[in-house]
Amino acid sequence: YGIAPGPAPNNPQHIRLGETILPPFERNDGGYVDADARGYQILRDYAGAPRSGFRRYALADVLMGRIEPQAIKNKIVIVGVAAQSVKDYFYTPYSGGLDSDQRMFGINLHAHAVSQLLRAGLDAAPSIATPSERTEVAWTWLWTLLGGLIGLRIRSVRWFSASVVAGLAALALIGYLTFLQRWWIPSVAPGLGWLLSAGLVTSYVSNLEKEQRAMLMQLFSRYMSNSVAESLWRQREEFLEGGRPLPQRLTATVLFSDLRGFTTVSERLDPRALMDWLNAYMEAMAKIVMVHDGIVDKFIGDAIMAVFGVPLARHTDTEIQQDAVHAVDCAVTMERELTRLNTEWQSQGLPTIGMRIGIFTGPLVVGSLGSSDRMEYTAIGDTVNIASRLESLDKDSADPRSADSLCRILIGETTMKYLGGKYETAQVGAVRLKGRLAATAVYRVWAPRASYTKFPATESAT
């Protein structure tokens, strides 16, 4: 055929056989790492025939004349030994089967080499190509980054596991299809990078979420309803920054409550009885706040500060109205609970008490406040001050033991507008509250109208 090896046109250091360029093997080609690349080696493709697919003749048959001359005429004949005792056998890509004997005799390796050279020279069959080391590194890093992205974005265990398996399957399929096109791209290193990065990133994100959840629970303690806590956790990416709640300016409703006649009660009871009595009151009122989707901002002696509409900002008037109505619903429910507690205390010979509540709706600032060792999520601003002033307005003007003064609920004009006629109210008048120059319209809440249907609370009181 007149085909002989010669230098490649583009690179004289490479061998050309017919139309095929046979580049030399490099030590990190394909799946090899720091292999022996001395001499001029090429990657064997084993495409000529399966393990023992070449015709084989025993030397005894040749010597005895039992082989037809036409069987070997114009053929390349390789003479060698195929015996277990000679130990001329090797592991090859065909060694991955389930057969007990997975090794290939050296003579078969020579046959594959000859077959590959013939196909290259006669049929222009291309040699196996491998990407450059830079390309292999980039390919490995790509799969490592993709695995990290999977670990970062997918939180469901089921979907995470499915994604990891699907990624490995896709990598194997890509490797197989490219190999059919005589390209050998690495699969093991990218697969390990995919698995390790997905696992490590998932572990890191999981630990970070645990820390963030612990931080949130420390800030809000147990004074938040389960529904609010779950909503907060679902939207934590919008709410947290640097492991702390983002300071926000938003519109919310603030409720202040305080006991009337508490000083007299504290003088009558011994310390243990006083704390038990007060804790029973605080426990009952805190539960009512949470049931109405508020959070207990703080306990201040015998006073309670609650906020409705935090920590997740409201974006529509309907949502702000719902918070205002929830706050007033909460106040009325607190009044009913105080009536029940007074009846219980009276039967036990314990003192009864009255309560004042102030409610105001408006803009405020919320965020975490305190030292690095002790942080507290709280609300500050004029709205908080007005609600506090409404609660303490003329606090000594009525007898706390009378039925009319058992619980006095005062609200500001903005809260009154959001009620939309759902409650029986009476205008107290324009009052100049302590610390404010302008007068504030004040209303007293008596009871819900018969036609009023409450906003559905996310939880029911028990």
Task: Please write out the topology.
Blueprint: E1 5-7, E2 15-17, E3 20-22, H1 59-63, E4 89-91, E5 103-105, H2 106-123, H3 133-153, H4 157-180, H5 188-220, H6 226-234, H7 236-239, E6 240-241, E7 244-245, E8 248-260, H8 262-268, H9 271-291, E9 294-300, E10 303-308, H10 317-347, E11 354-370, E12 375-380, H11 382-392, E13 407-412, H12 413-419, E14 423-431, E15 440-448
Parallel strand pairs: 11-13
Antiparallel strand pairs: 1-2, 2-3, 4-5, 6-7, 8-10, 8-11, 9-10, 11-12, 13-15, 14-15
Helix pairs in contact: 3-5, 4-5, 9-10
Write structural notes for this entry:
The protein is of the alpha+beta class and 462 residues long. The protein has 3 domains: 5-123, no CATH class; 133-214; 231-448, 2-Layer Sandwich (Alpha-Beta Plaits). It has helices at 59-63, 106-123, 133-153, 157-180, 188-220, 226-234, 236-239, 262-268, 271-291, 317-347, 382-392, 413-419; strands at residues 5-7, 15-17, 20-22, 89-91, 103-105, 240-241, 244-245, 248-260, 294-300, 303-308, 354-370, 375-380, 407-412, 423-431, 440-448. Strands 8, 9, 10, 11, 12, 13, 14 and 15 form an 8-stranded mixed sheet that branches. Strands 1-2-3 form a 3-stranded antiparallel sheet. Strands 4-5 form a two-stranded antiparallel sheet. A hairpin with a 2-residue loop joins strand 9 (294-300) and strand 10 (303-308). The longest helix is centred in the middle third of the chain and has 33 residues, at 188-220. The protein is rod-shaped, with a radius of gyration of 42 Å.
